[in-house]
Structure formats: structure tokens, C-alpha cells
Write a structure and sequence with these properties.
By secondary structure, the chain is mainly alpha-helical. The chain has helices spanning about 1-25, 35-65, 70-80, 90-110, 115-120, 135-155, 155-170, 180-200, 210-225, 230, 235-240, 245-250, 250-270, 275-295, 300-325, and strands spanning about 205, 335. The protein is globular, with a radius of gyration of 31 Å.
Length: about 325
């Protein structure tokens, strides 16, 4: 009897050992080259160059993000109206030319004082740690060469030289710190953007006398109203020691903002012979934006006011082009 019990225990022990061995072999297998981990790593290795490219594109976009509404949209609208596009496919090359020159300016400008951007715009590439100041400075000069080369190829070199020259004056020579010269450089910069973009839209033509007037008017509009951008950046500008209109004249600069928007809206309506609807929209928008600058005075409100100012600026550029055709019946550019 004892022998049978011992034999039964031995059989049970053998079965348990076999069962454990089977379970171990079936559940703890060596890693397969097709396991999830291996596939994930393999995908990462293949996608690494593409991910780097996307990150670099995003970095370039972030350099210019805040100026899309300020420069890219108004200048594209101005060029498209002043010299109607010969072909629809011309539009991408015009937008790319504007953006490349805008990128050249923004990279140069953001190398000056990253500490200010850390306060006002921490998402920009340098304060966000995407690139170093040294890398951005190297990129800046590569972009200058790219802008000039593209402009030679497209036949709009004078506009590119103006833009690159005033970028150096504004950023490297410190004109951005002076109240009047700051606005003057912005005005000439806008006019240079518009000159190059409109020449591209018109097929590399030269400016005739009737085309000079809207360019001068646009530059004067920017000169007298571009301090709208400085209200939202007041905190960072104080840290850097800049002298802007909102810092030097906190009350007067807001009154000037309202007066300038209303006066320019009225002048464009009168001298460009706008129809009643367009003139009313421009005047109401200008008055509303100007009043908002006076009565809404915190950083968040100033950012929204600046956004609305850019809406007014785009409308003003539309009026410059529409008036040139409806009011005077003259084309802005003469084809060579």
C-alpha cells in the first residue's frame, strides 16, 4: 500500500514538472525579430530622417508664425490686386518669395535678444530650445544668400537688396531701439516687400508713376500705425530697454492709434474713390480697432487688438489696389 502511494506521488510530481515545462516553453519564448518592440524600433529608424525634416520645417514656421498675418497676408493681397496675376500658378512663387525674405528678417531679429522672446513669445525656436543663437546666426546669413539668389533668378533683385539692407540697419545697427527709425524701417520694409511681390505678380515689370503712389501710401500707413504691434510686447520691451511709443507715451500712443486709423480710413475713402460699402467697412473697422486700443489695456486685450489691426491693414491694402483701378483707371505696373 505504501509503495502504491509513493508511486502515485511520483507520477503526480512528474506530471506537474511536465506541465510547468510546457507552460514555460509556451509563454516564455525568445524575442522574435517581428515583436512589437523590434517593429517600433525599426519604424523609428526608417522614419528618423522624415521626423527630423518635419521638425526642421516646424522650426522655420515658428520663426515666422507671428508675422503671417502682419506681413504675408497684407503683402500678398496688395500684390494680387495691384498687378492681377497672369496665371494662378504664379501665386505660390509670390508667397514663397515673401515668406523667404520674411524668414530672413525674423531669424536675424530673433537673434538679437532671446530673453525678450522668452517673456513675450516663449514658443519661438530660440527660447524654446529648438536652435541655439549661434545656429540661428549661421542660418541667417545662409538665408540672405538664398534671398538674393532667388531674386536674381526671378528678376526682382532691387527689392531683395532693400529688404536685406534694412534688415541689417534695423537689427544689427540698432535702429529698432529708436522710436522714429523703428517705424521708418518697418515702413520701408513693407514697401520693399510690396515692390518685389507686385513685380513678381506682374511678370517682372517695372513700376510706372501710377504705381508709386500706392506704395508710398502703404509705407506711410505702416509708418504711422505699426506701433500697434508694440502694445502687446511692452513687458518684454521694458526688460530689453527699448524705447517704443507705448513705453515713452503710454497715453498719447493709444490716442494717436485711434486718430491714425480713422484719418487713413477717411483719406483712402476720399482719394481712392471707394464705393460706399467698402468705405464704410474700412472706416467702421478702423474706428472700432482704435477705440479698442484706448479702452482695453491689458496684454491679452492688446494681442487681440493687434490681430484686429491686421484685419484693418489688409482692408486698407485692398482699398489701395481697388481704388487704383476704379478711381483712376491706371495700371500700377508697365510691362517691359
Amino acid at each position: 500500500m505504501a509503495t502504491l502511494v509513493s508511486h502515485h506521488k511520483t507520477l503526480s510530481s512528474s506530471k506537474s514538472s511536465l506541465a510547468f515545462t510546457y507552460l514555460t516553453r509556451s509563454t516564455v519564448s525568445p524575442p522574435s525579430p517581428f515583436s512589437t518592440l523590434s517593429l517600433t524600433q525599426e519604424c523609428r529608424n526608417h522614419l528618423h530622417p522624415a521626423l527630423d525634416l518635419l521638425l526642421n520645417i516646424q522650426t522655420l514656421y515658428l520663426f515666422t508664425k507671428s508675422d503671417f498675418k502682419t506681413v504675408l497676408l497684407p503683402v500678398t493681397v496688395f500684390a494680387s490686386i495691384m498687378a492681377p496675376l497672369n496665371r494662378v500658378q504664379c501665386l505660390p512663387r509670390i508667397v514663397f518669395w515673401i515668406w523667404l525674405h520674411l524668414l530672413q528678417f525674423c531669424v536675424s531679429n530673433q537673434c538679437i535678444n532671446p530673453e525678450e522672446d522668452a517673456v513675450n513669445k516663449p514658443w519661438r525656436p530660440i527660447p524654446a530650445g529648438r536652435v541655439t543663437v549661434s545656429q540661428a546666426q549661421n542660418l541667417r546669413w545662409v538665408l540672405v544668400a538664398a534671398c538674393l539668389a532667388l531674386s536674381i533668378y526671378r528678376g526682382v533683385l532691387p527689392a531683395s537688396i532693400l529688404l536685406c539692407s534694412f534688415t541689417i540697419a534695423y537689427n544689427d545697427l540698432g535702429l529698432h531701439r529708436h522710436i522714429v527709425m523703428r517705424n521708418a524701417c518697418n515702413a520701408v520694409g513693407y514697401a520693399s516687400f510690396e515692390l518685389g511681390a507686385t513685380q513678381l505678380a506682374a511678370g517682372n515689370s517695372y513700376v510706372c508713376s501710377s504705381g508709386v503712389v500706392p506704395l508710398i501710401a502703404s509705407a506711410l500707413i505702416v509708418f504711422t500705425t505699426i506701433h500697434a504691434a508694440d502694445f502687446r510686447d511692452e513687458e518684454g520691451d521694458r526688460l530689453e530697454g527699448k524705447r517704443t511709443l507705448p513705453i515713452s507715451f503710454p497715453e498719447g500712443s493709444r490716442i494717436v492709434m485711434l486718430a491714425s486709423l480713422v484719418l487713413w480710413s477717411s483719406a483712402l475713402s476720399l482719394f481712392w474713390n471707394l464705393d460706399a460699402i467698402l468705405a464704410s467697412v474700412l472706416l467702421i473697422t478702423g474706428a472700432a480697432v482704435g477705440l479698442r486700443f484706448i479702452y482695453r489695456r491689458n496684454a491679452a486685450a492688446d494681442r487681440m487688438s493687434y490681430l484686429l489691426y491686421n484685419v484693418w491693414l489688409s482692408l486698407a491694402h485692398i482699398c489701395l489696389g481697388v481704388g487704383q483701378y476704379r478711381g483712376r483707371g491706371m495700371t500700377a505696373f508697365a510691362i517691359q
